[in-house]
Amino acid sequence: MDLISQFIFVFAGFLAGTMAGLLPGVGLLTTLTIVYPLLKMGGITELILFYMSLAATVQYVGTVPSVFIGIPGETNSAPAVQEGVKFSRHGNADIAVGVCAIGSVIGAVVSVAIFYWISGYALETFGTVVSNRFRSILYLTVLLCFVLFFNQKRILINIGLIAVGLWLGMVGSNPLTEEFRFTFGIQDLRWGLDIMPMISGLIVIPALVQRGYTYQARLGEIRTSFIRPWIVFLRNWTSSIRGSVVGFICGLVPGITTILATSMSHTLENKLHPNKPVRKIISAETSNNSAQFASLIPLLMFGIPITGSEMFLYQMLIDAGWIPSELNNLSANISMIFVTVLPWFVVVNLMGLLVSWPLAKQAMFFYRLEYKYIVALVLTVIVAVILYVGWTDHRMISYILQTVFAGIIGFSLHRYNLLPMFTAYILSNDIESVFVREIMFAKIYLGI
User: Fold this and answer.
1) Would you say 441 and 221 are in contact if contact means Cβ atoms under 8 Å apart?
2) 203 within some domain
3) pTM above 0.70?
4) Domains in the chain: how many in total?
5) How confident is the model at residue 445 (pLDDT cuts 50, 70, 90)?
């Protein structure tokens, strides 16, 4: 793939990330759902570059509404909203946005440096053991995190959600025997439950409807100074480094990557500097960007997605021809990250710095609209996309019925975080294959 086509997908991801960061409730999953028909035309590298650009940009731009008007641009923006208010009261919101933008760049640089440092160790240590056994351990770790830490640590609820997700993913053909199962005689179900209607009904549509409150932003004069944020940041640069390291570590925790990173960094800085909001907001937002890059490492190196949006990306990569068993080549994966992903990651961070700081004033025009109209527009687009994808696959009725089925589940369980269910649904066949092989190996070893 040449540089021009790479740039097209990177720039498209940047534009989509800008919109997702500015519009409350329109996160990575919703954005991927909207652009799904376009992404179906992309190859493996294009999909990775688009997602990388989208995810990185959202972290930058989400700070703008959080600080200027106290509306979280993303789910992990709570610390930015909390500390940003303190700056806005004194007319210094531009300083908060500026130091966050600078800190985000530092977070990206530090996370890349840490990855470069551990990549050689990963090759040396895991190069010979990244196998079926290693994948089974990773899957157990991911599922255990979901069971122990989600939905207020309600273990039985989480186990139930995972079980339902595994069952949903098993609909269709058995990956080992190729026999059909759980199809109830319905021809369309032989291909399984499709990702587009399932993600829309389970997560995206219920989340948007629940967030469909109305507000009218009252925008005063917004300034974006250049010199003052640099001066303030340089006086508090150590908070950025701390946030970067904490973010990288937290970014590897399945399901709660950036949310855990911002919370942990904010808490740590609050204990170290309780009366300095500038240090707390720098640490939280730096941690945000560092965690976003770190969360991609398990997927790009081992083929293990650990966030909801990565689950969607994983399925698209599989559809594009990415075979999970070929992800065991650590050397090739690390080379792909350094040669293709990281150079564009640097470019995207510079673009994110620009739009979330000097151009923040221009980006704020969205907040003169009532949110209910934004939600209605997004929902309309999602329904249109579902119908279009169903029509192109010659399965429109099936897509509609699957969306309704998933929507019933999504709205019925709206009180719970359905990421454990969605993860199990996406990884169901691979989890089954991995553990069946482990059982076979155990029987051979035991002579059974």
Assistant:
1) no
2) yes
3) yes
4) 1
5) low
